[in-house]
Amino acid sequence: MKIVVIGGTGLIGSKTVAILRQGGHDVVAASPNTGVNTITGQGLKEAMAGSQAIIDLANSPSFEDRAVLEFFTTSEGNLLPAETAAGVRHHVALSIVGTDRSDNGYFRAKVAQEKLIETSGIPYTIIRSTQFLEFLGAIAASGADGNIVRISPGLFQPIAADDVAAIVADVALAAPRNGVVEIAGPERAPFNEVVARYLKAIGDPRVVVSDPEARYFGGRVEERSLVPLGEARLGRIGFDEWVRRSRAAA
Q: Which of 44, 158, 170, 210 could be joined to 192 by an S-S link, Cβ 3.0–4.6 Å?
């Protein structure tokens, strides 16, 4: 089976490509540095030729509201017609749990992306994921004020990138759902407690303070705005196992 992974050299993309290639599939790791650019359209026709499935993991280089919206609408505006012309039978896109429950500009851009996919006429599956454990350091940095890190007490259920990649690969090989699949990590806890646990694990002396007014990349966090509300497919790697693997890799 030929599968094109857009964003195939990134964190999730590189892991997904490796899993699919291990399974014997013909996989194109598509990204600007491999000659495939969804913003300019460069290389799309050639990459799509003969493809049965497309996995869209492209991500905006900017988180500024207007820039991120333009990125996702332009990317899909080039990608989806190329897939239609090539007869692609399954479009898989990675999105975010809570996209429709936040005032975050990035989330609004992901909603716009999802709508383009849903109305494209191409069979699809949208995978909404909770935040990756790999981004806990960046989250702590975004809430830092000197030695204090202010984090919302809303619920949080981060997932390991290895689990995300495994599920993305599995979904791509299955029949299109023409709907949304939500995925999350196996452990749920208050956001501030997860970040405090992370800082302790890496020996970071900063103190995490629970602050209901703390923003998450610009958006307000309600109790359940960052976790699945209904049924979700859970990863297998818990926090302690993820820390162990991260140390071993380092």
A: 210
Q: Which residues of 104-125 are buried (b: 16+ CB within 10 A; e: fewer)?
A: bbbbbbbebbbebbeebebebb
Rounded Cα distance between 100 and 75, Å, is 20
The 8 Å CB, 24+ separation contacts for 61-67 are 63/105, 63/106, 63/217, 64/105, 65/105, 65/106, 65/108, 65/109
pTM of the model as a whole: 0.95
Q: Residue 2 pairs with which residues in a beta bridge?
A: 26
What's the rounded Cα separation, in Å, for the pair 36 and 27? 14
d(CA 9, CA 58): 10
- Could you tell me the maximum CA-CA distance found in the chain, to the nearest angstrom? 55
Give residue limits of the domains in the chain: 2-249
138 SS3 class: helix
Considering the segment(s) 2-249 as one domain, its CATH architecture is 3-Layer(aba) Sandwich (3.40)
Give residue-wise pLDDT tens across range 134-179: 999 999 999 999 999 999 999 999 999 999 999 999 999 999 999 9
Rounded to 5 degrees, what are φ and ψ at 209?
-110, 130
82, 42 in Cβ contact below 8 A?
A: no
Decide if 27 contacts 17 (C-beta within 8 A).
Answer: yes
pLDDT tens digits, residue range 48-88? Answer: 999 999 999 999 988 888 999 999 999 999 999 999 999 99
